[in-house]
Amino acid sequence: MHDKSLPDDRSTYTEYRADPRALRKHVAGTLRSGNFEYPAYPFRAPPELTEGRTGRHPVVIVGGGLAGLAAAVDFGVRGIPCVLLDDNNTVSLGSRSIAQGKRTMEIATRLGIAERMREKGVFWSKGNTLIQDKLLYSFDILPEGDEKYSAFLSLPQYHVEAILVERAAELPCVDLRWSSRVTGVTQDDDAVHLQVETPEGRYAIDTEWVIACDGIRSTMRGALGIPFEGNRFIEHFVICDVKMNFTFPPQRMFWFSPTFDRSNIALMHQQPESIWRVDWQLGVGDDPKVESQPERVNERLATMFGPDVPFETMFASIYSFEVRRIDKFRHGRVFFAGDAAHQLSPFGGGRGGNSAIQDVDNLVWKIAHVLGGHAPPSLLDSYDAERIPVADENMRLSRRAAEFINPTSAHSHALRNATLALAPGHPFAKVLINTGRLSVAPNLRGSALLTPDEDGWDTALTPGNAAVDAPLGDGEWLSEQFTGEFQLLIYAERLDQIDHAALDALDADAVPVSPIVVTEEGGALTDPRGVLRRRYDLHPGSVYLFRPDQYVTARWRALDPAKVRDAVRRALAGHRSP
Amino acid sequence: MLNSDMRFAAPDDVYQALLSLADGRNERDAHAALAAFALILANHIGEDAVVFEAVAQVQRAFATHPEALLVGTPDAAPESYQVGGALDSLRKVLALKPAPTIPGALTS
Predict the structure, then answer these.
(1) What pTM value is reported for the model?
(2) Considering only CA atoms, which of A480, A507, A485, A461 is closest in space to residue A572?
(3) What ipTM is given for this predicted complex?
(4) Which of A133, A284, A420 is the closest to B88 by Cβ?
């Protein structure tokens, strides 16, 4: 939560927030219920204050947004003590990220929060794109089938954060410290030294590693003097969360040239609990400060919805955005993740929140193995090597959607409008309409941690892909089998064809490789419909090695423990063992 | 006769390539680049009737959807706002038949 953090002087990111109390004065009709009670997490004086000493911790996370909380829970489920410092005492205001992608849900399964998220969220798949009041085309992102989670779950960030906080409380080694602001940072070869300011005084912490997850206006980034530059987009967008007494099946609506506003585009997107995300772009002559006034926001919403539809505005702000990243995500012993490391457009297909969670998913197991003495600190350089290309791809896709929505040249404008004109009669043109491409799990192709194939495989899946889910027998899913360790998926016709002694030995290694055994005849997990076999091109004896973040790191047509151990060493050190 | 289904493996990359026709050009020359591109493809097609049909389809699309050509221009803003327009169009969409599935049409 970077809401109250010091402004970063170099940042040109602007945001004007409407006062929520004033927003809610407008209630047309009888609708009157808050949907979400913002928790006030208490400040508790840590030992550093009560005992008057400098703290020593293996890991400190700065910032308790999606990335920070997910990192804390990930360390927590691994049994590694961590301290999280957040300068606020609640979850993020307004819904911010709302699309929790399939990959995020698979990570959430491992963190133990997927069911809690599912209970609160809504899955939707239908969307409509219009010009004025004419339907250009509709789409239905049908679930691909045979995967536990569909493309994404609509669940606002504040809910996800509250669930993560609840989960952290179940993990004794996670120490969430609210109302604790970092005011100073220095680092040397052995440690990072943090100064922390709290309602009950200041204290100091020495820590081996820091993950900075403190958002777009990151104070950590500012304190280390790291520039954050990229493309600034001049357009201003209004973003609101509106509770509306109007029920219909979940849909997404996107208008070019809406009839109810002078904006270039408008968007409505369903969230749980009768809340809608409503966005529109300000017109050329609109003054962001004027248009962020609660009366103006509500006036425009009333025009959208009409006089008979009661609504209550929960949150509204106006912002412009930039697409940018810092040069390196690792700065000595400090790692940057989420918005502190990279900023994307709001129409990026849910890349902001999802990539924040993917960042820490990539980083935490690596720090865990370094802390445990099982990997050299150089493993941590692979965080940059693996996540910077993903950030670049996200930024590229963000820029493309932004260019489609707001073309920056006459040529681009002509191509865009030609696409829109052709779309109703030409299926290919519908596909070219780009109002944001859905975030999917990235491929880590080319990473030095991966072991290249030595056998032939007849599947699109390669080392560097996140595990693709598949249904197993008895209602089990592959996505539920992951424990956060290295794991070896082994497939055989019969249980007695498997070298159990070799599997047991691997599982007993210093860095354990736990088996996921799937057989045709039973006695272990089964693949009754053959979906797993097809997706992974499994033949009897085939094995897949997954990293602790569920990425395929190596695979062979037969189990050879020496090769498995080599691949594990490679995944931990970034080079092949001699 | 003309195939209008999506046939590209990476549609967004193709769109990006078309955008790049204008790189480093003024508006007039960008027009010319797009025209040159159309000429090359028309010749590659090599069937007069297909080219005539493509021309006719452009004419039809532009005549049927003049509003598309105004998107993002000052002329797109409505003279008066349609009160309740957002929910009206939502109701209209819901009255239509179920949305068809367009392979590859992923959007946020």
Answers:
(1) 0.91
(2) A485
(3) 0.90
(4) A133
